[in-house]
Amino acid sequence: MKPLSPAVDVARLVSVDGGWSWAGATAGLLLAAGLALVVAGMPASRRPTLDDRLEPYLRDTPRPSSLLARPAPVRGPFGFGDLLAPYLTRLGAVVGRALGGAASVARRQQRAGQPVDVEQFRAEQVGFGAAGAVAGLLLTTAVAVAQRGLPLPLLVGTVVVGTLGGITGRDYALSRAASRREARMLTEFPTVAELLALAVSAGEGAVGALERVCRLSHGELAGELRRCLADARAGANLPTALQGLADRTGLISLARFVDGIVVAVERGTPLAEVLRAQAQDVREDGRRTLLEQGGRKEIYMMVPIVFLTLPVTVLFALYPGLRLLHLEL
């Protein structure tokens, strides 16, 4: 038997008599799933955590009967989510230790309007990484079938790239969600500021104007203002609640807006003109941003003209002459 070269042929490793051994692969997967179920059902895997052991002694009220509790929603098809949840959490902790940036993740979750849960985000990154690894494996399998062979380093490299792509793709999706939400808040800000200015000019106080605007408007910024009012009703003073709005977002315009309202509430300065000026500043910033985007898009529009339209035009202009020269020669 000829020894295998360092560039191992994947098709030869997984084929039997020239055909793919799907039965063997299926049996291996079923065996792995059965072993995972056995390991998950062992007492060592079902050991209660420290939080579970301390929870009965830290509750203010006695724990109600488990018969009265609502069943937890099933995660994943056929309950596999419950089986894989502990492993995803552990792998997510490993990814978190490798990448770091828990504060950055929590900050972006706040900016995106999502609940701050870094562990859940790391588990989602693990899931996306596994999906990327499967996609890379399927791609290399298709290439191996088409070319009758594939080097093993290329297979491993594709799987690794797919895994890293899934992990970084989930992180990029969170950043995009935060940026899009802040863009929507900037779009809503001039209208909300002018409504507040109208309410203040009509004689409403700062709290009354915020309540009126929250009743009449909908959107991301209105939702944040409702949250500020809820914090104020819960016991926090209005400046502190509004400062929480500035802390949850990374927008300078909203920070100036909050500072204007806080100064007006604390010192009794006129608020309507300040709000109108801020709305006008945001509109001017929006116009400048549109002009900058238009300039960048104009450059992008040159790409199809230079690389597609111009070569075709030159080809149509030169081809008849080249054809005549070829016939004469």
TrEMBL record:
Query: Keyword Transmembrane helix, does the record have it?
Result: yes
Could you name the domain of life of the organism this protein comes from? Bacteria
What is the name of this protein? Type II secretion system F family protein
Q: Which InterPro entries match?
A: T2SS_GspF_dom
Subcellular location per the Swiss-Prot or TrEMBL entry: Cell membrane
Alphabetically sorted, this entry's keywords are: Cell membrane, Membrane, Transmembrane, Transmembrane helix
Residue spans crossing the bilayer: 20-40, 126-146, 152-174, 299-319
Q: What is the lineage of its organism?
A: Bacteria, Bacillati, Actinomycetota, Actinomycetes, Micrococcales
Span of domain Type II secretion system protein GspF: 194-317
Is-annotated flag, keyword Cell membrane? yes
Q: What is the protein's membrane topology class?
A: Multi-pass membrane protein
